[in-house]
Specification:
Two copies of one chain form a homodimer.
Chain A (H helix, E strand, L loop, with lengths): L1 H8 L5 H10 L1 E5 L4 E3 L7 E7 L2 E6 L5 E7 L6 H9 L6 E4 L3 E7 H10 L1 H27 L2 H16 L3 E2 L3 H8 L3 H13 L3 E4 L2 E4 L3
Helix pairs in contact in A: 4-5, 6-8, 7-8
Chain A binds a DNA duplex (30 and 30 nucleotides) through helix 8.
Chain lengths: ~210, ~210
DNA sequence: CCTAGGAAGTAACAATGGTTACATTGCCAT
DNA sequence: ATGGCAATGTAACCATTGTTACTTCCTAGG
């Protein structure tokens, strides 16, 4: 396990901390679609994302979803961090967008390390910083963009995190993430196709490189 | 100054830290409407809010605004925290909603204190935690509520933070905060008045207690 | 090869919110 | 008291998004 740890976190953490993580952390592989964190759940251990993509969702009062942001290599979920520290329930759902590898850290270690390791403090603060900024970007999208622009941004974000210009999702799945209806997504996708920004196929979309 | 510090922060910080804050902090009074932090600005010192209310805003590409949340006694701006640590520009604007008293802390002290004081670490983490949750609530409002519900929530939030069921704002000012137009606000306020939830007057609104 | 069911296309309509334009009202300063 | 201006009321219209109700198309599994 130390191998993948040093590869992905070696430039972030001190050696002593890497060793501790190696000691107390649990390696975990999850496959696409599996739920890592559920709303209302107490968090017993914090996930560091080694490889893969995780999507973080919010749920409304009817059980409908809204994508907040994607997590990539080296990221961790600030909401989770937040829950761990405060011993509160999770306010979000986290789902593996692709097959992913994680290192799970027991909660009690986290506070110790905050006092002990400067690199851990920086990592935690940096995590909060980027997650706040990502949430701000999410607010921008929802508040300031029209649905067609949000859709296009969503598709671009998706190609970026998966590093694949083919998006393997149905219109219904996209509609869930954007908190709208399948018909609206189909309508706007067709418009974007006519504008030459993408190609529509059954169960997948190919983004046109610009 | 130590007087107001102990009153409002005595239960949060250790004595030694309170003394340090007293040493290095600068007391500052600002009046309603003054801008504390501007978008794009680098932060040289971090404000602790002693008394008053601060509103935190986001701006779109046309310069139009959107209220993110209010800060109250004992709060600080997580976005600012975040900027201090990362030496990045502010992504938000902060404006005094009422006359307010602040203690300004030089940035370089903050990192020292993180290593040194457990109460400071807890405060910083707690701040991030609540700000993240407030941003999530903002996302909920924008994404899941219709404009009339958002408006009512806004008015209730406002009465809560100012502890005054009379809201001293014009429809235009409310429209700016909600990122909509004055006509829409007037229309919906009139609807809410007909529903018996509030009374409209010139330049102020009285909320009906339910 | 055929068929059932999921996925996508599309039309028609409703609801919400944004925009323009103008009328009315209250209030302050002179 | 009154003229002027900011604040509010309101109507009419438009654009966007949501909804319903179909049809058509594709593909996996028999």
């Amino acid at each position: 396990m130390i191998q993948e740890l040093t590869t992905y976190f070696g430039h972030i953490f001190e050696d002593a901390l890497l060793h501790e993580i190696n000691q107390v952390g649990t390696f975990k592989e999850v496959s696409e679609g599996s739920t890592l964190i559920e709303i209302g759940q107490y968090i017993k251990s914090m996930p560091l994302l080694v490889t893969g993509v995780i999507k973080v969702l919010r749920e409304d009062s009817h059980g409908d979803e809204l994508l907040l942001y994607f997590l990539e290599n080296g990221d961790t979920c600030a909401m989770t961090l937040s829950c761990c520290m405060g011993q509160t329930k999770s306010e979000v759902r986290a789902i593996a967008e692709t097959d992913s590898k994680l290192v799970m850290i027991p909660v009690q270690k986290m506070e110790e390390w905050l006092a002990q390791y400067k690199s851990w403090r920086n990592y935690v603060l940096e995590t909060y910083h980027s997650r706040l900024n990502e949430l701000l970007e999410t607010v921008d999208s929802i508040a300031f963009l029209k649905m067609d622009e949000r859709l296009l941004k969503y598709l671009h974000d998706k190609t970026r995190v998966t590093n694949d210009r083919i998006i393997h999702n149905t219109h219904q799945e996209i509609a869930y993430d954007l908190h709208t209806s399948r018909v609206v997504v189909s309508r706007l996708l067709k418009k974007l196709e006519n504008m030459g920004k993408l190609e529509l196929h059954r169960s997948h979309i190919t983004m046109v490189t610009h």
